């Protein structure tokens, strides 16, 4: 997805070449094609036929919807207290004989 985010309208050959050059990823063209199909079914990649070429473009809208559904990290509420109540506090120095 990072390579698709860099430039829209890439062919399978371009994506495979960029993965090898930029990330040293050695996955078959068939493997990349299968991953792109999954991303397309999930609505994360849009494809368009231009002549004999099939061009792939990232569509980040579904990912943007996720960020509005769940709060960002660090803003979650603290966990609720346990049913047994808070743990007992340690005894103060005056309570020891």
From TrEMBL:
<dbReference type="InterPro" id="IPR011991">
    <property type="entry name" value="ArsR-like_HTH"/>
</dbReference>
<feature type="compositionally biased region" description="Pro residues">
    <location>
        <begin position="77"/>
        <end position="97"/>
    </location>
</feature>
<dbReference type="Pfam" id="PF12840">
    <property type="entry name" value="HTH_20"/>
</dbReference>
<dbReference type="InterPro" id="IPR036388">
    <property type="entry name" value="WH-like_DNA-bd_sf"/>
</dbReference>
<feature type="region of interest" description="Disordered">
    <location>
        <begin position="63"/>
        <end position="97"/>
    </location>
</feature>
<protein>
    <submittedName>
        <fullName>Helix-turn-helix transcriptional regulator</fullName>
    </submittedName>
</protein>
<dbReference type="InterPro" id="IPR036390">
    <property type="entry name" value="WH_DNA-bd_sf"/>
</dbReference>
